[in-house]
Design a protein that fits this description.
The structure is a single chain. A 7-stranded mixed β-sheet has the order 2-3-4-1-5-6-7, sandwiched between helices. It has helices spanning 30-37, 100-104, 123-131, 151-158, 174-197; strands at residues 16-24, 43-48, 67-80, 83-89, 109-114, 136-141, 166-169. Helices cover 27% and strands 26% of the residues.
Length: 201
């Protein structure tokens, strides 16, 4: 081993911490995804749905849902020794959308979860990230007994560009959910590489 003349061993490289948002409509599986991949006990801010939400929260298609996120879900996953993702699940109901701007501060990218039974519920999240130029990918959470569509059909329905990654997953399972996060990271790296290659004005 080479000797550098120093009395101290080199300091270990610190892992890069990256903030990622998990967004989408009400009941698409954001809390479930954060919980399935987090290596720590996830922080959840769920409350029981009550009669006060009647006429405010749209339960169409998720009639069996009994709780909802009222602030954030938080989890952490180590991709490799050099990269740690901090996951922030956003609240899905429209009355909590005012929190999204604050949650988006410092985020490197986002996953927009979609439910093929109610694709329209992710329109707001897609629009939010497009308007702010925050890179994102779409994760289609494949619920049981939900309509099955091809990726290109989902792309057309959401009016997404051809280069936008779309991944199928089961938010209850760790590996498929992790693959969605890896898809996002690969997308971010590709965007960065394209930016570096772009000619300077």
């Amino acid at each position: 081993m080479a000797f550098d003349g120093s009395d101290h061993a080199p300091a270990p490289a610190l892992a890069s911490a990256v903030k990622i948002l998990i967004a989408g409509g009400f009941g698409v599986g954001k809390t479930t995804m954060v919980g399935s991949v987090s290596e720590i006990r996830p922080l959840r801010t769920e409350e029981v749905l009550s009669g006060l939400g009647t006429g405010v929260d749209d339960l169409a298609g998720v009639e069996g849902k009994t709780t909802t996120t009222v602030a954030i879900d938080f989890g952490r996953i180590t991709i490799n020794p050099q990269l740690v993702l901090y996951l922030f699940g956003t609240p899905g109901q429209q009355r909590f959308w005012f929190m999204w701007d604050e949650l988006a501060r410092g985020a490197l990218g986002a996953v927009v979860l979609a439910d093929t039974r109610r694709l329209e519920t992710c329109f707001a999240a897609v629009d939010f990230f497009e308007r702010r130029n925050l890179p994102f990918v779409v994760g289609v959470n494949c619920f049981e007994n939900a309509p099955v569509y091809r990726v290109d059909e989902v792309r057309d329905a959401l009016d997404l560009a051809d280069e936008m990654p779309i991944a199928l997953c089961d938010a209850r399972e760790r590996e498929p959910s992790k693959e969605v996060l890896v898809t996002l990271l690969e997308h971010l790296l590709k965007l960065e590489a394209n930016t570096r290659r772009a000619p300077h004005a």
